[in-house]
Amino acid sequence: MAALLAGSSSFACAQSSVTIYGVADAGLVLERGGAAGNVTAVSSGVASGNRLGFKGREDLGGGLAAIFNLENGYGIDTGAAGQGGLLFGRQAYAGLAGAAGTVTLGRQYSPWYKAIRDVADPFGIGMAGNAINVMVGNTRVDNMVEFQSVRYAGWSADVAYGAGETAGGAARNRSLGAGLSYQHGALQAVLVFHRRDNAAATDHAAYGMAVVKYDFGVLCASLAHARNRGLAGADSHDTLLGMTAPLGTGKLLASVISHRDESSAARHALQWAAGYSYTLSKRSDLYAAYGHIINDNGAAFKAGNGTDAGSGPTAINLGLRHVF
After folding, report:
1. Is 13 a domain residue?
2. By residue range, what is the domain housing residue 254?
3. Which of 108, 148, 265, 282 counts the highest number of beta carbons within 10 A?
4. Of 134, 5, 39, 49, the residue nearest 319 (C-alpha)
């Protein structure tokens, strides 16, 4: 594997580095129309999840490098650990990087999640416009082995396998993911797939999504469509239309997302969202966002960082984000 990753690169003197980085994000969240009533809260990680991370790289020669990333999540409003109290709940992996690509092992983001966060969603999975409010999918996978290729002639691939580590069969709790992306100039396109088997390997959930993003200069537009196969036949599909545009010293964000439930219950949802990020410096910005969800037939999708959803929940965010 090391020889495959290294390819034909020339020898380089060994060097190593470790970087400490993070995000400190706090905001005011106003929720209206939820099933439990109105809520006003100081919340954590409204625009970007708060984190403290350590990443390192050691050049091994021949174009090969050893890498690692350990990333802790925390709540800035209470100081509590995020992701259920895990020490490095956001990411924890080690791997090798070379001329052909990168192989990593550990707790990592799935190819599906990276496609929607980095390409489809103008809010970057944050603020009241967060696409995960209504779109079906997953975020992280434990025990995952991932290969990400370098980009060649505009194309790159991302393949992932998450071991279920459950007695009785390798398919139990197993995760499979794959992505194929193309980028040329202002155009970016991604096809991505994710599958998760249940604990008995008798059923599975699967998500497939196509995303196209184009930068017109005056604005950047994205379009995504996902087909979802849920457990026990809970099928649905999601469509997202988003845009970002420079405005003053910051940028304007907007999206509309439709979730269509294909079951007999027809629990559809429609989310509208708009926001603005005002740049204070290279590392700091102020943000404001508005999101509203229309839930049909008992659907219970939530707006913003809400904990419940009524027939028409609304969220408003005002906050500060600092990246270091």
Report:
1. no
2. 21-323
3. 108
4. 49
